[in-house]
């Protein structure tokens, strides 16, 4: 059996599923390939890389928390994070009754991203900054909750890469919001084996 593996640049305001009883925008609008499903999720108000496949064991392997593969995000946050807040994010923060795993966090220059419609809210007297965060877990709205917990709410969130063991990162390179491509044969061979 030949499986399909697709990379999609999920746009803002699109659900990470193919159907929605409320008629909201979904992956169906962008991916005309039957029987593929997202590996993991991105919130409706987040953008970026989604891997889709019809390979059930691979989908399980890549989405189950025990396998802990990396996910890199670019987060535009309100105000300028302090060194202390970055250190907190790196060591893990408590969200309700859960402590996040340590993350790789660094300040970055604004990434070259397509315009988002609608744009983030703009406040003339409140600066913003960009962070790159690499997580090895994917709790619901985790990046947003982490940055808010240290006092710097996320305004825009983009998953920029999936970091798989012994594989070249899967990235957004060459894709615009709503576009997708098949994984290359080399990329498929580098996926973790079940």
From TrEMBL:
GO biological process: pseudouridine synthesis; rRNA processing
Provenance organism: Leptolyngbya foveolarum
A GO molecular-function descriptor: pseudouridine synthase activity
InterPro entries cross-referenced by the UniProt entry: PsdUridine_s_RsuA/RluB/E/F_cat (IPR042092), PsdUridine_synth_cat_dom_sf (IPR020103), PsdUridine_synth_RsuA/RluA (IPR006145), PsdUridine_synth_RsuA/RluB/E/F (IPR000748), PsdUridine_synth_RsuA/RluB_CS (IPR018496), RsuA_PseudoU_synthase (IPR050343), TruA/RsuA/RluB/E/F_N (IPR020094)
Name of the protein in question: Pseudouridine synthase
Residues annotated as domain Pseudouridine synthase RsuA/RluA-like: 5-149
Keyword Isomerase among UniProt keywords: yes
Keywords: Isomerase
EC number, UniProt record: 5.4.99.-
Stored PANTHER family: PSEUDOURIDINE SYNTHASE FAMILY PROTEIN-RELATED, RNA-BINDING S4 DOMAIN-CONTAINING PROTEIN
Species lineage: Bacteria, Bacillati, Cyanobacteriota, Cyanophyceae, Leptolyngbyales
UniProt family annotation: Belongs to the pseudouridine synthase RsuA family.
């Amino acid at each position: 059996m030949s499986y399909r593996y697709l990379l999609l640049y999920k746009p803002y305001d699109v659900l990470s599923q193919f159907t929605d009883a409320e008629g909201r925008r979904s992956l169906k609008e962008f991916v005309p390939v039957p029987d593929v499903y997202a590996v993991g999720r991105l919130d409706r108000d987040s953008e970026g890389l989604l891997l889709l496949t019809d390979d059930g064991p691979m989908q399980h392997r890549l989405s189950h928390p025990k396998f802990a593969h990396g996910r890199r995000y670019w987060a535009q946050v309100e105000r300028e994070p302090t060194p202390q807040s970055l250190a907190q994010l790196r060591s893990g923060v408590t969200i309700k009754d859960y402590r996040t795993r340590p993350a790789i966090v660094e300040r970055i220059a604004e990434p070259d991203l397509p315009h988002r419609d609608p744009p983030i809210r703009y406040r003339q007297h409140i600066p913003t900054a960009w962070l790159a965060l690499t997580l090895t877990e994917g709790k619901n709205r985790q990046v947003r909750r982490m940055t808010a917990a240290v006092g710097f709410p996320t305004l825009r969130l983009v998953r920029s890469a999936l970091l798989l063991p012994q594989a070249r990162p899967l990235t957004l390179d060459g894709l615009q919001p709503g576009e997708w491509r098949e994984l290359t044969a080399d990329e498929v061979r580098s996926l973790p084996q079940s």
